[in-house]
Amino acid sequence: MLDAPATKTIRGQYINGQWVRAARHFADINPSTGALFAEAPDGTRSDARAAIEAAHAAFPAWAEMKFTERAHLLNKISDIWERRAPEFIACAQAEGGGWYGKGAFEAHYVTEVFRSAAAICYQPLGEVLPSEYGKVSTGVRYPMGVISVISPWNFPGVLTARGFAFALAAGNTIVLKPSEDTPWIGGLYFAEIMEEARVPAGVFNVVTCAREGVAAMGDELIEHPYVKGISFTGSTPVGRAIAAKAGAHLKKACVELGGKDSLIILDDADLDRAAQAANFGSFMHQGQICMSVEKVLVHEKVYAEFLPKFAERAAKLKVGDSADPSNVIGPLINDRQVARVKAQLDDAIAKGAKVVTGGKITGRFVEPTLLTGVTPDMLIYRDETFGPVVPVIPFRTDDEAIALNNDTEYGLSAGIFSRDEARALAMSKRLETGMCHINCTSVNDEPHVPFGGSKASGLGRHGGRWSIETFTETRWITLDRGGRPYPPVF
After folding, report:
1. Catalytic: which of 290, 294, 384, 436?
2. DSSP 438-471
3. Which pLDDT value is given to residue 226?
């Protein structure tokens, strides 16, 4: 394992294959300690415009490149990622506040994203359609042009790579804006790897800015006429605004947003396995995952047996500075997130909820917390928490569990534990979620699957051929060989 440097030197924004220094910088903070991780470039709307123009200029040659050459480049990117994994892990701990194991998972997963994207280059681009007139009639997918990618801080490796790798494989060019909380591992680190892989200038660009500049830069990344599609992963309020602006400009937008995901534990479940899944799903990366378990729904017949199993596991998770690999629960990313979690916890306790284990908040560190007695009038029942606090709620029937799951504006993921797969599968069909995992937690992802939600959890799908559908245009192309008759009057 490499140690992250006390302060990281960032060379600038990455535009048209060049490192471009910004006039101003902002502090990129280690959330565990509050120490400075790096001075990050505080770019402007004009920087975003320059990056978009560079990507637009690079698009024709990249789109015309042989698909095998694009695939080879993507595999080269993957190889570099794999070699530099220890560096990413150390910086993910220092800049992102993640546990060592979480960083190791991300580093491995990102290599598979690029390999999966390379493989998609060899897949069919369309289909041959029947024609009444004997035409050669085809529906063919073509790259769109410049794709803006706005990525989040919670899984900056995975969610950034997934946001652009398949679009890049399809022949699009990219302008990436990472979160201001993780400008390095979510953005400029990728630029270093693209430079090392010798991706052509302008094909991949990264711009960064402080929180105060996000709105202006974001508007440019959506409204510029050269931008043809937007890939966004983040909060539902921001996603709504991005989708609305994209719609106003008639641009494609794939937005993967928040969740209020349930883990449903039926009366015939393997409770030990379910307790482990609940613990992982609720508290991995401090619950700062869009598909984290935010409601544990337990059949009343096994509720009394399950709750202590879950509480015992949660109480064993060590909390502290993520520089120590034994600390599984690191800090929340910033003080705003701590305030959000504290407000929900305080509201629940004031309205009668009971703390089974945890409940303590020290700075940015929040203990893994289980609550009972949570009711629909509490903030934590309806609002996304994005922190290590989870209610455990009993239910009587399968219908009631389904209703409790669906009683939210969100619809991202879910998990169901039961030894009766047919029963669980029947329930899954009635859940208003984009994903559901039987005998596993709601936290699941693979590079080639259709990842995304319903309702307020997003539009479109990331992953594999579903990303290709999202970030290409389908064109109807025909070859007529004199078979179509025209009216004689013409």
Report:
1. 290
2. ETS-S----TTS-B--EETTEES-BSHHHHHHHT
3. 98
Reported in sequence order, the residue ranges of 341-412 that DSSP labels E, i.e. its strands, are 354-357, 361-362, 365-366, 369-372, 389-395, 410-411
pLDDT, residue 5, reads 57
What string of H, E and C letters represents the secondary structure of 69-91?
A: HHHHHHHHHHHHHHHCHHHHHHH
Sign of the alpha-carbon torsion through 196, 198, 201, 202: negative
Within 8 A by CB and 6+ apart from 462, the residues are 162, 163, 166, 231, 233, 254, 256, 451, 452, 470
Residue 29 main-chain phi, psi, to 5 deg: -105, 140
Positions of the chain with pLDDT lower than 50, given as ranges: 1
Distant-in-sequence, close-in-space partners of 278: CB < 8 Å, separation ≥ 6: 263, 265, 293, 296, 310, 313, 390, 441
Q: How far apart are CA 161 and CA 314, in angstroms?
A: 31
Name the catalytic one among 106, 256, 294, 367: 256
Q: Is the pTM of this model over 0.90?
A: yes
Dihedrals phi, psi of 228, to nearest 5 degrees: -110, -15
Is 256 a catalytic site residue?
yes
Catalytic residue check, 300: no
